[in-house]
Design a protein that fits this description.
Chain B: This is FGF1 intracellular binding protein. The complex is a heterodimer of chains A (1054) and B (364). Chain A is an alpha+beta fold and 1054 residues long. Chain A is 27% helix and 30% strand. Chain A has 20 helices and 34 strands. In chain A, the strands form 9 sheets. A 6-stranded antiparallel β-sheet of chain A has the order 16-17-15-14-13-26, sandwiched between helices. Chain A is globular. Chain B has 364 residues and is mainly alpha-helical. Chain B has 22 helices and 1 strand. Chain B is elongated and about 85 Å long. The chains are: A alpha+beta (1054), B mainly alpha (364). At the A-B interface, strand 28, helix 13, strand 31 and helix 19 of A face strand 1, helix 4, helix 5 and helix 6 of B. Strand 28 of chain A pairs antiparallel with strand 1 of chain B, so a sheet runs across the interface.
Chain lengths: 1054, 364
């Protein structure tokens, strides 16, 4: 019985009128956790009741603490009839279970009803007293920290990155139970919300257990998804990267991704710029393995693509002795893992040695009803949703969801091997479901990693060796990890344009963020490939077969589009590539988004050449040359727009056997696209059951046109789908996160692939144009982390959901700010001297033995010390005086911490962050909570992670017209979801959500019945941030107050 | 390809001031789009009409959702659904409660009832303000009226506290509420030359001096005191005003008053002879207005009477404003020298306010 949960219901406000006669409400509250329920008194006749209840205490074991949400129901008391529910609040108490996160949840929560939306607010205080658990066989994993952020969180240091963790749980979907026929929509929605909340709690706990087994203490890049499989059930699955994290206590930390490439790398003990013997190859074609096999339960495993690069799998054969050594060691480190996958997209410096290319695998499955006879009977009970782990329940059945994923992961692993890589980074999984067909997809970037991070102390000798070969240019990750001599397709390799020693491919595709140390020329831009393919309506296996037959073509065409668009932009690498294939009743949609950049290490991309099939026709020739000219003009214009002007390098300097500078891509005009492609496929099929798609051609004028119709963003706008835009680093603090949803109805007449493509293309382009227009007041501005999601809710409907953040940057002040930073830092250095006395104190506390787990409470929480230093300043850390200053700063923070803590430790302290510019007219009590899909907040330092936010909401209406139609309904719902996320973050004492993601937005309407329903699932990390400007101002005036920001961590007890 | 659904939701609610104005002005989405196109925004931004349409729809939807909160501005501040920076919140409220001069002149002093609401059609046609906008403005007046009607304390403070308006706007609303409560006639043809500002000025003076709140004495028995401090005129005061009648009824007093004024102003007034000739008429007019204020009907006609009895006669004789000022100052001051007159305090309370009002009302 290791935990006591305490809940206090303080007050309510803005309650709806429940009694028409009096225009008032007699409200009371039910507080439920597990099977225990408490009630407050009825507060008569008020819309702003003050319950001020006693502390309700629940004595529960920590397993339940992790699984169960706290459920608060506000009701209207009715003497004569049943009490009416006003709404509910679900509070995930998980953040209270880590020692470093929040200590109390306290604040105003919107009261939410699935039919009416938000109906007033309730003020709740929640605390947990955890007792030490000595049971070794425990089922809970309290204390394992979860982060959605796909990089090492800012105020932590990665001691070890253990690797991939995954888990899934399955249940029946309450919406499809027999009981749903007799219960109200509200009851059904609430059952679903509660079930998913339970399932995700359980999932998280199980993942936590796995992490503990691996001796880790945290999960980074935690991604949890729901598959609403309809009749066949509800799957909640999650993947993540297990790590051992240390709170940072030294300034030599990983830089926030927002900052310019670090130059203080030498200070970091972890930095070993990668290098190895000269070996290199080229690449960029696609490697697609088709392993179509039909089992009796029908499963088609389809095209697996390896974008970029292709190795024989005979890694280590070639290359210098060092490379072999490195490979061996990495291999040994990784071989112990079933899947050497990492969900991270940004890495500690030195972690990523080489990048091979994108690997992806898809598989088409037919959904079966999940056999779970045990469930059906007990659904009605209070303890109804007894969750079953699919693994254990059906462990003897091979065709489980788990097995499906295992299969796909295996495939990914082998593709990575084929590229000479041992690991897959930037790994993600997704599904698309339509009726009983399900496409499972997995995607990642094959890479060679530095084993230093994967296991403790295995690489000491090797390290030194490597350090001697130190390459400062940061081009190492571009160097090919596979063998030059063993490539099954015409490859195009050159010597690296940065170091001139090793081979690089001419184009590089990856799913990760741009490494901070990569040298990029000019700016980047969002590149999208969009594609629709009609498909006949079919049932079951025929349908699945049809889909799996279409998939390779779609992958191929999307790749071609990406490649052509990349060249059109004059760029040579794609980062953050995300390929989404969505299945509908009568069509398949493909959307690939990535951020194109020009990597200095890679060769200048060739242009695009159009070749006609009938070269003798004069007018035709003219047309072709006209098109050619247009394309060349566009390339030139783009180069100017994105400021791509690489230094000219004469061929002699490179002095390598560079193949003739032929144009890499040609758009071949051909009328019979399919037959053409089939030839291509056959051609390559002979080799290793893989086919290679030559990218040097594509079909039809349509494609050329679509290339040219992509309008660049208006001036002052940039966009990318990675964390940050290369080439821009003077971000201001003005950010605007948004979600935009569009649904279009296709006219069902004469739908052709071409018309469909055009519609889809227009939809995406118009959406982007609308965004640019709406955000025009933020110019100059960059849309970052632009995330498109496509779904096909019905036959003729296409839904596109975009979430992104617009960040304003300062065009002119880049130079100025660095200057002032430098000045300030000098100033600070002098004021800091007086603090030097505190050195010894700090050093003692710092050298306390730290165990990887449990996270030592005594760890000094001076994590922000690194973050306290502005980026520009950090660049200059080379001078000794700054080093001293940095140290002094750290120490000061650590040592004075206790004196100031309490001020901000409680959520009441939130006020400090808020309302800096209070309105003249009013005393607003609502604090600002920022939301961003990025892992950082520009111009600010994250000082504390408060826990993961993972929320699932259902909203339904039976009065669609009255609520403003579908747009009004969804607009209100999304606004409500934002509000609830903000309220939860504020209650945890935070002022921002980072790595925010809307994982699902399932919208269904039935206008004839005046009904609509929507499901939204969002997640992110609740954090506390402090403005850099605040950090800077304080020390100059009053040095000791400087520690305040870092003391936000709630160590009230110290 | 038709757009079924098209929304944009920002973590910080986007407010476009121009679109907000169009929405407040009651334009439909299509009219608003047309107006925006005309403003040249497409050329400036390179956007298409479709983009503009979608943007306008979005903003309209947002405003529609915000409207419920704007009805009780403190709610806007405390709500959690829309994250809006405080300065923007203030702007939203201020603009929402702003009103058109032309409109307010039409309804000023009218009962804020359903009957008046029905007339909004005509007002809309007459003023060229859209019916939607008229309704919003009317409902705003009514809402403010309802909320502060039963409240004690300063009218302006109450309005400011419950509607978070700027000082300026709160004062205007106080005037509107005051006029509506006392039902002053402002629509007569004679009064058409007066602006809302003129009336608001008078309202403020009257609230400051002629209401219960103005006396500054807290009601001795709070339960018996049903009148609102600032909204209703001080009944006792109005009753007392009858006493002033002696100033014109008593022939000697009137003559003495006249001679005092004439002596003081001789040579100082450009229109001295006209003043001398008209003194008795003017004085009778002003005093009779005071004496009649016991009747509600006459209270309502206060401004009509003032214009008829004082403004018009002076204007027909082409008195310059400065002469009017000199005259009124002297006229009120001289009463202090009338030994037989015992109601000096009452006179000052009446004339002090009236003088201010008359000076404001005296223009073309």
């Amino acid at each position: 019985m290791p935990g006591k949960l305490k809940v206090k219901i303080v007050a309510g406000r803005h309650l709806p009128v429940m009694d028409r006669a009096s225009d008032l409400t007699d409200a009371f509250v039910e507080v439920k956790f597990g099977n225990t329920t408490f009630k407050t008194d009825v507060y008569l006749k008020s819309l702003n009741p003050q319950w001020n209840s006693e502390w309700f205490k629940f004595e529960v074991d920590d397993e339940d603490l992790q699984d169960e949400p706290l459920q608060i129901t506000v009701l209207d008391h009715d003497t004569y009839s049943a009490n009416d529910a006003i709404g509910k609040v679900y509070i995930d108490i998980d953040p209270l279970l880590y020692s470093e996160a929040a200590t109390v949840i306290s604040g105003w929560f919107p009261i939410y009803d699935t039919i009416h939306g938000i109906r007033g607010e309730i003020n709740v205080v929640v605390k947990v007293d955890l007792f030490n658990d000595l049971n070794r066989f425990r089922q809970s994993s309290c204390g394992v920290k979860f982060f959605c952020t796909t990089s090492i969180p800012k105020c932590y240091r990665a001691v070890i990155i253990h690797g991939f963790v995954e888990e899934l749980v399955v249940n029946e979907d309450p919406e499809y139970q027999w009981i749903d026929r007799i219960r109200t929509p509200r009851a059904s929605n609430e059952a679903r919300q509660r079930l998913i909340s339970l399932m995700s709690g359980e999932l998280q706990r199980k993942i936590g257990l796995k992490v503990l087994e691996m001796r880790g203490n945290a999960v980074v890049g935690y991604l949890q998804c729901f598959d609403l499989e309809g009749e066949s059930g509800l799957v909640v699955r999650a993947i993540g990267t297990a790590c051992t994290l240390d709170k940072l206590s030294s300034p030599a930390a990983f830089l926030p991704a927002c900052n310019s490439p670090s130059k203080d790398m030498k200070e970091s003990p972890l930095v070993h710029p990668p290098s190895h013997g000269c070996r290199s190859t080229h690449n960029s074609p696609i490697h697609t393995a088709t392993g179509s096999r039909l089992t009796q339960n029908f499963s088609v495993s389809v095209p697996t693509l390896i974008y970029t690069g292709m190795g024989s799998g005979s890694a280590g054969k070639e290359g210098g002795p060092f490379k072999a050594l490195l490979r061996q060691q990495t291999q040994s480190a990784l071989e112990q893992r079933e899947f050497p996958f990492f969900t991270l997209t940004a890495f500690p410096p030195g972690f990523l040695v080489h990048v091979g290319g994108v690997v992806s695998a898809r598989s088409v499955k037919l959904l079966d009803r999940i056999h779970n006879p045990a469930f059906v009977g007990i659904m009605g009970n209070t303890r109804s949703y007894k969750l079953l782990d699919w693994n254990s329940f059906n462990s003897d059945e091979p065709e489980t969801r788990d097995a499906w994923w295992a299969e796909i992961r295996q495939e990914i692993k082998s593709h990575a091997k084929a590229l000479g890589c041992h690991a897959v980074v930037g790994y993600s999984e997704s599904t698309s479901i339509c009726e009983e067909v399900c496409i499972l997809s997995a995607c990642g970037t094959a890479a060679v990693l530095n084993p230093r991070f994967l296991q403790d102390g295995t690489m000491e000798g090797c390290l030194e060796q490597r350090l001697e070969e130190n390459l400062p240019t940061g081009c190492g990750f571009c160097h090919i990890p596979y063998d030059e001599l063993n490539m099954p397709f015409p490859a195009h390799l050159t010597y690296c344009y940065s170091c001139r020693k090793q081979k690089v491919p001419d184009v590089l595709f990856t799913t990760i963020d741009l490494p901070t140390d990569a040298t990029v020329i000019g700016k980047g831009c969002l590149i999208q490939a969009r594609l629709c393919r009609l498909k006949k309506k079919a049932q079951a296996e025929a349908n699945a077969t049809a889909i799996s037959n279409l998939l390779p073509f779609m992958e191929y065409e999307m790749h071609t589009q990406l490649m052509n668009k990349l060249k059109l932009k004059g760029m040579n690498a794609l980062f953050g590539l995300r390929i989404q294939i969505t299945v509908g009743e009568n069509m398949l949609m493909g959307l690939a988004s990535a951020t194109g950049v020009y990597l200095a290490a890679l060769p200048t991309p060739g242009g695009i050449q159009i070749a006609g099939k009938t070269p003798n026709d004069g007018s035709y020739e003219q047309h072709i040359s006209h098109m050619q000219k247009k394309i060349n003009d566009t390339i030139a214009k783009n180069k100017e727009l994105y400021e791509i002007n690489p230094p000219e390098i004469s061929e002699e300097i490179i002095g390598s056997p560079i193949p003739e500078p032929r144009q890499r891509s040609r758009l071949l005009r051909s009328q019979s696209e399919s037959s053409d492609e089939v030839t291509e496929l056959d051609l390559s099929h002979g080799k290793k059951d893989a086919f290679v798609l030559e990218i040097d051609d594509t079909d039809a004028m349509e494609d050329v046109h679509s290339l040219l119709t992509d309008v660049p963003p208006p001036s002052g706008f940039y966009s990318c789908n990675t964390e940050i835009m290369p080439g821009i680093n003077n971000w201001t603090s003005e950010i605007q996160m948004f979600t935009s949803v569009r649904v279009i109805r296709l006219s069902s007449l004469n739908l052709t692939n071409q018309a469909l493509n055009k519609n889809f293309n227009d939809l995406c382009e118009n959406l982007l144009k609308s965004l640019y227009f709406k955000l025009r007041s933020m110019i100059p501005c960059c849309l970052c982390h632009v995330n498109f999601t496509v779904s096909l809710p019905e036959d003729e409907l296409i839904q596109v959901t975009v979430t992104a953040v617009a960040i304003t940057f300062d065009k002119n002040q880049a130079l100025q700010t660095t200057k002032t930073h430098a000045e300030k830092s000098l100033q600070r250095a002098s004021t800091d001297n007086e603090e030097l006395l505190q050195f010894p104190l700090e050093l003692c506390s710092d050298s306390l033995p730290s165990h990887p787990f449990p996270p030592a409470k005594e760890h000094l929480e001076s994590a922000s010390s690194n973050s306290g230093i502005p980026a520009a300043q950090r660049d200059r850390c080379s001078s000794w005086i700054e080093l001293i200053k940095l140290k002094a700063q750290t120490i000061r923070r650590g040592s004075i911490k206790t004196t100031v803590t309490v001020e901000k430790a409680s959520p009441m302290g939130e006020g400090n962050f808020r309302n800096r510019s209070a309105p003249p007219c009013a005393n607003s009590t609502v604090g600002v909570v920022k939301m961003t899909p990025l892992s950082f907040i520009p111009g600010a330092k994250i000082t504390k992670y408060l826990g993961i936010i993972n929320m699932f909401f259902i909203r339904e209406t039976t009065s669609l017209r009255e609520e403003g139609g579908v747009s009004g309904f969804l607009h209100a719902f999304i606004a409500e979801v934002f509000a609830m996320v903000r309220a939860h973050v504020a209650a945890l004492g935070g002022n921002a959500v980072v790595s925010y993601i809307m994982k699902q937005c399932v919208f269904m309407e039935n206008p004839n019945k005046n009904q609509a329903q929507c499901l939204i699932n969002v997640s992110g990390d609740a954090v506390v941030f402090v403005r850099e400007s605040d950090l800077e101002v304080v020390p100059t005036q009053q040095p000791s107050a400087n520690c305040q920001p870092s003391c936000t961590e709630g160590e009230v007890t110290t | 390809m038709t757009s079924e659904l098209d929304i944009f939701v920002g973590n910080t609610t986007l407010i476009d001031e121009d679109v907000y104005r169009l929405w407040l002005d009651g334009y439909s989405v299509s009219d608003a789009v047309a107006l925006r196109v005309r403003s040249g925004i497409l050329e400036q931004t390179g956007a298409t009409a479709a983009v503009l349409q979608s943007d306008t729809m979005d903003h309209y939807r947002t405003f529609h959702m915000l409207e419920r909160l704007l009805h009780a501005p403190p709610k806007l501040l405390h709500q959690l659904i829309f994250q809006i920076p405080p300065s923007r919140q203030a702007l939203l409220i201020e603009r929402y409660y702003a009103f058109d001069e032309a409109f307010v002149r039409e309804v000023l002093g009218k009962k804020l009832s359903k009957g008046t609401k029905k007339d909004l059609d005509d007002i809309s046609t007459k003023t060229g303000i859209t019916l939607k906008s008229c309704r919003r403005q009317f409902d705003n007046f009514k809402r403010v009226f309802k909320v502060v009607e039963e409240m004690r304390g300063s009218l302006v403070d109450n309005i400011q506290q419950h509607f978070l308006l700027s000082d300026r706007l709160a004062r205007d609303y106080a005037a509107i509420v005051f006029f509506a409560n006392n039902r002053f006639e402002t629509g007569k043809k004679k009064l058409q030359y007066l602006s809302f500002g003129d009336f608001a000025f008078c309202a403020e003076l009257m609230i400051q001096n002629w209401t219960l709140g103005a006396v500054g004495e807290a009601p001795t028995d709070p339960d018996s005191q049903v009148d609102d401090m600032d909204m209703d005129l001080d009944k006792e005061f109005l009753q007392d005003l009858k006493e002033l009648k002696v100033l014109v009824a008593d022939k000697d007093l009137l003559d003495l008053h006249k001679s005092l004024v004439c002596t003081a102003l001789r040579g100082k007034l450009g229109v001295f002879s006209e003043m001398e000739a008209n003194f008795k008429n003017l004085s009778r007019g002003l005093v009779n207005v005071a004496a009649k204020l016991t009747h509600n009907k006459d209270v309502r006609d206060l401004f009509v009477d003032l214009v008829e009895k004082f403004v018009e006669p002076c204007r027909s004789d082409h008195w310059p404003l400065n002469d009017v000022r000199l005259f009124l100052n002297q006229y009120s001051a001289s009463v202090h020298s009338l030994d037989g007159f015992r109601h000096q305090g009452l006179w000052d309370r009446y004339m002090g306010t009236l003088r201010g009002c008359l000076l404001r009302l005296y223009h073309d």
